[in-house]
Amino acid sequence: MTSFENISGQLAEQAIELPSWAFGNSGTRFRVFGQPGVPRDPFEKVADAAKVHELTGLAPTVALHIPWDEVDDYGKLRAHAADLGVALGTVNSNTFQDEAYKLGSLAHRDAAVRRKAIDHHLRCIEIMGETGSRDLKIWLADGTNYAGQDDMRTRQDHLADSLAEIYAAIGEDQRLVLEYKIFEPAFYSMDVPDWGTSYAQVVALGPKAFVCLDTGHHAPSTNIEFIVMQLLRLGRLGSFDFNSRNYADDDLIVGSADPFQLFRILVEVVRGGGLGPDSGVAFMLDQCHNIEAKIPGQIRSVLNVQEMTARALLLDRAALDAAQLAGDVLGAHEVFMDAFQTDVRPALADWRESRGLPRDPMAAYRASGYQQQVEAERVGGDQAGWGA
Ligand code: PSV
Ligand code: MN
Predict the structure, then answer these.
(1) Which of 191, 218, 249, 286 to mutate to test the pocket of ligand 1 (most atoms within 8 A of CB)?
(2) Would you list the domain boundaries of the chain?
């Protein structure tokens, strides 16, 4: 097994982007349970994200969702983030909550609706200039509910044309990232339902376009690590939206439902050169904390990713290769499982301490008084929420 000292440099480079919306209230279509101390504006969301970074050293950027995180002055939000030791990251567009988009946005049959959706993305790119963001992430709710409802082929062509217009506005150092999702809100066909469709669309755009893989967006039992391998092999894995799912797009804490799947994914990330700032693969969370506390939920999440990354890095590649070449099925599997079953928590606590971070960030958060402080301060105003 590779020793922990050998991987600490790679761990030091790990960065996991937090979603601003994870700090707002969220729920299901049945109920949203509000929590005390929840941010009332993007400035307070950024402050909560900065707290996660302060205690873990793992989350230097926070993703924005437009219009949820619209502000008058993005330069001010950027400076606020910098003051707190973080930066603004990916800008997520949102074409799923406006009345006009009932039947779609970039793939809509009506050119006027497509125009509105394209303009929204052009505005997002302008915002990226002000926030200093690299990535525009597009997830589309576009699709149909009934066979025959619309012409899937025409919609795909419209989508390609709309994306091409958006891509033309993407700056030299910026990227477009297209996220896919098997279903929801559309239940018959989604216009970007799978990685193959996203891949085909981004390849047609050019070298600054990539696929975003949200771990909750596949059919049950899909081999997600295979997709990771393939996209890395093809040079088009742009980002992850990490979360856990038991059933559909559950948006639970990453690594909670199936830690072994997270390990398998990270093994392929390491194998394919997807780790580190120069890899071009952005690690993001896309989660909602409906019943658990939000800031500790995010701390737990980034720690889960770090723990599983450490285990993936510890995988003894030479022993694995040798077993694979020898056709030693069980030997290879054992090498793989040895890495998965390694408890890296004590070594990571030491590693954190050596970098001036708390050994136990969850306990440090509880002891920090931050939760009590924001609960006392954030009184009045409207709490932020997913979709508000
Ligand atoms: C859609 O389900 C999605 O995964 C997209 O990334 C959205 O931006 C996000 O969720 C909103 O929570
Ligand atoms: Mn997502």
Answers:
(1) 286
(2) 14-377
Tokens representing residue 339 in the block: 């890495």
For residue range 370-383, list pLDDT tens digits in order: 999 999 999 999 99
- What pLDDT, on a 0 to 100 scale, did the predictor assign at position 386? 73
Its pTM surpasses 0.85: yes
Tell whether ligand 1 has an atom less than 6 A from the beta carbon of residue 249.
Answer: yes
CATH class of the structural domain 14-377 = alpha beta
What are the Cα distances from residue 170, in Å, to 150, 163, 187, 307?
30, 11, 31, 35
139 CB less than 6 Å from ligand 1?
yes
**For residues 77 and 42, is the Cβ–Cβ distance under 8 A?**
yes
- Centre of ligand 2 from the C-alpha of residue 197, in Å: 16
Q: Which residues of 284-304 are buried (b: 16+ CB within 10 A; e: fewer)?
A: bbbbbbbeebbbbbbbbbbbb
Determine the atom of ligand 1 nearest the C-alpha atom of 249: 2
**pLDDT on residue 313:** 98
For 185-208, what is the mean pLDDT?
Answer: 99
8 A C-beta contact, residue 314 and residue 344: yes
CA of 100 to the centre of ligand 2 (A): 22
Interval between CA 147 and ligand 1 midpoint (Å) = 25
pLDDT tens digits, 266-277: 999 999 999 999
Query: Does residue 6 register a pLDDT over 90?
Result: yes
Give nearest CA residue, ligand 1 atom 12.
286
